[in-house]
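#lab-general

N.A. 3:47 PM
ok so I finally got the sequence cleaned up, no stray characters, all 273 residues accounted for. can someone with queue access submit it? mine expired

B.Y. 3:52 PM
send it over

N.A. 3:53 PM
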Amino acid sequence: MRYGFHVSISGKLGLEGAAQEAERLGLSAIQIFAKSPRSWKLRPTKPGELEGFRARRENLGGLPTVIHASYLINLGAEGELWERSVFSLADDLAKAQALGAEYVVVHPGSAHPEQARKGALRARELAKLGKKGPQLLLENTAGGKGLLGNTLEALRDLIKDTPLGVCFDTCHAFAAGYPLHQAPQKVLDDLEKTLGLERVPVVHLNDSKGAFESHVDQHAGLLLGQIGLGLRGFITDPRLSHKIAIMETPRSTGEDAHNLRVLREWLEIKTPE
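B.Y. 4:20 PM
back already:
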C-alpha cells in the first residue's frame, strides 16, 4: 500500500516543497491542493515549479499524487456556480496532467432532492474532462443538508457508465452511517459489492470526532476518534493492499509522528531511519 498525508504547497518552494516533505517523512504518496480550496482564484505556477516537482517525484519512485479539488465546486449547482465549478475543476485536472498526478478528488456538492438526478447527469458531463490524463474521483460525503454522494448507492448512480471513480473517506462513511467501528469488513464488502473495488483507487484514512451517523464531518487522528481500531480492520484487509491511503488528519510534528507510527504498525512497515 502507498500512503501519505495531505501536504501543503505553500511557501517559497511551492509544489517542490510538497515533494520534499514527502521525502522527509518517508511518505509513499501525497495529496495536495492545486490552489486555495476556499477561493475561485487560480494559482499560477512559478517558473521551474512543475519541472522541480516532477523531478523530485521521479526520484521518489513515482510518488503517487492526488489533487483535491476546491471545496466550492458543486455538481448539483445551476447558472454561475455551475460554470465556476466546471472552470475550477478543469483547472485542477489540467494541473494534475502537468504534474503527472494520477487522480483528482472532488466532493459531489449539494442539491435539492429533485436536482439530485441532474447532479448525476452533470457528473457524467464532467467525466469527459478526465478522459485523457488523471482520473476524476468523486468522494463520499457525511450526508445531511442535501449533500450528494452520502451513500454507496448514490455514488454508484453518479459514476455509472462513466470513467469516474470513487475516493472513499472513512470519516465521512462513519458519519453517514457505515459501521466502520463495529463491522469494518462488512463495510468493505458493501463497497466491493456496490461499486467494485477497481473503481476505488484512493482511500482517505481518517478517524472521526463526530459520532456514528451524526453527519458531522470532523476528522481526527488515527485511534483518536470514534472509529478507533475499526480502521485497522478496514485498512489492513488484503483487498486494499494496492490502494493509496491518504491521511487528512490534523497536522503537527507530534500528530504526524503519531499517525505514521500507528499506520506503519498496522501495515507492518518499518519506520524509516
